[in-house]
Amino acid sequence: MEDRNLRLTKIGQVVSAGKMDKTIVVSVTSRTNHPIYKKVVHKTKKFKVHDEKNECNIGDTVQIMETRPLSKEKYYRLIKIIEKAK
Prior knowledge:
Layout: E1 9-20, E2 23-33, E3 40-50, E4 61-66, E5 74-83
Parallel strand pairs: 3-5
Antiparallel strand pairs: 1-2, 1-4, 2-3, 4-5
């Protein structure tokens, strides 16, 4: 039996939860160098993530993993909650 390919994982903050059933919106920030000015630039991207048990709240830090498309915009799923919001 062949091994499956490694799935892309990301860590981010939950910015929206509860408005959609079994779906959260996670904001992932990455740091890159600007191609011309060589300064560090923060880039933010939002992902819609499948949360089967509706257990996340706004402000939680979560780990997400790439998966097959679950809807038009949702192609990540929740792996674990790293830190709950205070």
